[in-house]
Amino acid sequence: MQSPESGVHYSRWDDSSRDEVSVAAMSSTEEASCCQRLSRKLCTGRLGIAMKVLGGVALFWVIFILGYVTGYYVHKCK
Fold first, then answer.
1. Which of 17, 24, 31, 57 is within CB 3.0–4.6 Å of 7 for a Cys-Cys bond?
2. Global pTM?
3. What are the TM regions of this chain, as residue ranges (predicted)?
4. Rounded to whole angstroms, how far apart are CA atoms 26 and 70?
5. Which alpha helices (DSSP H) does 1-78 contain, by range?
6. What gap in Å lies between CA 62 and CA 56, rounded to an integer?
7. What are phi and psi of 46, to 5 degrees?
8. Which residues pair with 62 in a beta bridge?
9. Residue 51: Cβ within 10 Å count
C-alpha cells in the first residue's frame, strides 16, 4: 500500500484503536533533486534577494523598452 521510498510510515497497533502515522522529512542533501538544490540556493538568503532585485530591474527595462518602441510607432508622424 505504501512505497518504500515514500516519506510517510503508517502502522496500526493490534491491541488498541490508536493509529500511528509518522512523516519523515527529507533532510539529507543526497535525497534532494538537483532542481531543488538549485532553487534553494538561488531563491533564499542574500543571493536570493540579489536575484530578485536583478530580475525586477531587468523586467523594468524590458517593459520600458517595449513601451518606448510601441509609443514610437503609434505616435510616429506621417
1. 24
2. 0.51
3. 49-74
4. 49
5. 34-43, 45-74
6. 10
7. -65, -40
8. none
9. 15
CA-to-CA distance for 33 and 41, rounded, in angstroms? Answer: 12
Pairwise CA distance, residues 53 & 47, whole Å: 10
The packing angle between helices 45-74 and 34-43, to 10°, is 80
Instruction: Burial-class residue 48 by CB neighbours within 10 Å (0-12, 13-18, 19+).
Output: middle
How far is the C-alpha of 9 from the C-alpha of 38, rounded, in Å?
Answer: 28
For CA atoms 13, 25, 8, 30, give the dihedral sign: negative
Q: Are 50 and 56 in contact (CB under 8 A)?
A: no
The residues, any chain, with a CB within 8 Å of residue 45's CB and separated by 6 or more, are none
Residue 23's SS3 state is strand
Instruction: Quick: pLDDT tens for 3-37.
Output: 555 566 555 655 555 666 666 655 554 567 888 88
